[in-house]
Amino acid sequence: MPLIIVVAGIALLLLLTIKIKLNTFVSLIIVSIAVAIASGMDLNKVVTSVESGLGGTLGHIGLIFGFGVMLGRLLADAGGAQRIALTMLNYFGKNKLDWAVVCSAFIVGIALFFEVGLILLVPILFAIAREAKISPMFMCVPMLSGLLVAHGFLPPHPGPTVIAREYGADVGLVLIYGIIVGIPTFILCGPVLNKFCQRIIPDAFKKEGNIASLGATRRFSESEMPGFGISFLTAMLPVILMAVVTIIQMTHAKSAADSGLFYNILLFLGNSTIAMLISLLFAIYTMGLGRGKTIPELMDSCGKAIAGIAGLLLIIGGGGAFKQVLIDSGVGQYISTLVSGMDINPILMAWGVAAFLRICLGSATVAAISTAGLVIPLLAVHPNTNLALITLATGAGSCICSHVNDASFWMIKDFFGLTTKETLLSWTLMSTLLSICGLIFILLASMII
């Protein structure tokens, strides 16, 4: 019965969002309440469970997202993201544009949400394509693989950050393992897969694309852009702070850790929220005050950035509510009990559930958060499971098979002038392979770590 309730809940969510076209956040709340009632939860506890899930999820990640999106906006508005992309392109040269683009997208993608990074990088790619006299499609798959790896595997992106907190994983450790797993993944699914795509959809690589829907896009002159070094440092500072502190934690003796003031200060600075705040303050200077901008100008950029994620935060909160209902209603525990005797690897379980939900729902973030509600009870049966790898497996599963129920599918189709078939054989194929490669590298890592 609980399995039927979950499937029915997912079907209802699809009906509300796709057929009726109801707002995703409202749909998630309706489905959460419906699943709770159908599961026999006390009516007095239904709303409490929904509020607890929504508030608990946003309470964990609201500050990180807020600081992160402001940092990304400052980097973009100052020309720092464009500087990173152009420097990488100049370094690799015309013959290796795919490698330049995938590296640029990965670096920029750490600081920017997927959709923001896509809208920022696409005009740059089109300008480079015109100068090189090639189709922008030659750089499409590498760019998307770099952005998607950052989106699915690395904090401070929504999915990895939320599920790391839900599972109780160390965010810094997720970041380090995510980079280790992510690099070979985006290489295989970017430059390598790009060669294969050129053979199976050759006509797509003759198209010029169309980004008129983006309107007038800002192109910075050489003198307007900050230097590569400071742009790179600004984008990567959150990663550096969290990674350094995590490495120190892994190598520092426990007894000394309990008594060392310096060590405890490092832990404070490496906390994901504090690391993002420090990075934001650094960006305000390097991308703003240090370049002659005023505080009102910078705060205007930050305000616009925050306004842009309001809808996303509500959807994430709705996903958290659905997750909590699955736990409080006992559905997650039922599924955990059901599979505990099957000796299923929890990494495979997390990946499989996330992949199924992603294919059904279209949203990687909602799929990842909802997966936590089904997987958390299973972790009690496998207490020695590496929580950072479970987080990455969930993130990898949530990246799979982006198709017609995902807004990104249509954005990419329109920007690059592709047919639906060509989009399926490029973007959908890449996202599926990226998810599977990510899983393989995570399983390999679990044998070593």
From TrEMBL:
Gene Ontology cellular component list: plasma membrane
Source species, domain of life: Bacteria
Membrane-spanning residues: 27-44, 56-76, 99-129, 136-154, 174-193, 228-249, 261-285, 305-327, 347-380, 425-448
Entry membrane topology: Multi-pass membrane protein
Any Pfam family hit: GntP_permease
The keyword Membrane is annotated on this UniProt entry: yes
Subcellular location: Cell membrane
GO MF term set: gluconate transmembrane transporter activity
Major localization class: membrane
Family per similarity comment: Belongs to the GntP permease family.
Protein name, entry field: Gluconate permease
